[in-house]
Amino acid sequence: MIKPILIHPDPRLKKPCAPVADLSDDLRALADDMLETMYHAPGIGLAAPQVGVLDRLIVMDCVKEGEPEPVVMFNPEVLSSSDDLNVYEEGCLSIPEQYADVTRPAAVRVGWIDMDGNPQEKDFDGLWATCVQHEIDHLNGKLFIDYLGPMKRQMITRKSQKMKREMARG
Ligand SMILES: [Zn+2]
C-alpha cells in the first residue's frame, strides 16, 4: 500500500524516533509499504517519519539499473565513518524538487536489524553511503537542509511550503 509522504515543514520530520523493540508483523508490513511508496515516488530511500511513523526504520535501494536491491533496516546505526568526504547533490521525498550539495563521510559502516530480526553489519560507499546517512538523519529529526547555511535553508523551506500548499489544494 502506497502511503502519503509528509512534506517539509512538518513537526513530525523534526522529532527523534524511538528504537524498535520487537519486530511485529505490523512493522514488517510497514517496511513493505515503505518500499512500495519509495519505488512509486520514485526515490532511493525513505525513513518511517516521512510516512508519519516515529520508529527507527528505513528502506533503501540505490541500484539505478538492473536487479533491484531493496534494503530494510530497523534501528540502523553508523558504527564508523571514513575520514574521506564526499559531496553529493541531495534531494528528499519530503522536500520535493529541491536539491543541494551536502558533504558527508564517503564511506560508513552501518549496523542494523534485518526483517528476520537478525543483526547485520555492512560497509557502504558511493551513493549508498550518502543515502544511508541521509535516512538515518531522518530518524534523528534531521533533514539534509540542516547542513546548509540559514539563507539557503530558509529559501528551500519557503519553496517547500509553497509546494505543500499547492499539493493540498490538489
Ligand atoms: Zn529525505
Question: Can you tag this structure with a few keywords?
Answer:
alpha+beta; 5-stranded antiparallel β-sheet; two-stranded antiparallel ribbon; 3 helices; 30% strand
The amount of helix comes to: 25-40%
Report strand order across the widest sheet: 1-2-3-6-7
Rg measurement, Å? 15 Å
Distance between the termini: 21 Å
Largest sheet: 5 strands, antiparallel
Explain this structure.
The structure is a single chain. The chain is of the alpha+beta class and 170 residues long. The chain is 29% helix and 30% strand. It is built from three helices and seven strands. The strands form two sheets. A five-stranded antiparallel β-sheet has the order 1-2-3-6-7. A two-stranded antiparallel ribbon has the order 4-5. A hairpin with a 5-residue loop joins strand 6 and strand 7 (119-125). The chain is globular, with a radius of gyration of 15 Å. The two termini are 21 Å apart. The model has no long low-confidence stretch (mean pLDDT 97). The protein binds zinc ion. Zinc ion binds next to helix 2.
Question: Layout of SSEs?
Answer:
Layout: H1 25-40, E1 45-47, E2 57-60, E3 71-81, E4 85-92, E5 95-105, E6 107-113, E7 119-125, H2 126-139, H3 150-169
Antiparallel strand pairs: 1-2, 2-3, 3-6, 4-5, 6-7
This protein binds zinc ion.
Tell me briefly what this model is.
By secondary structure, the chain is an alpha+beta fold. Helix content is 29%, strand content 30%.
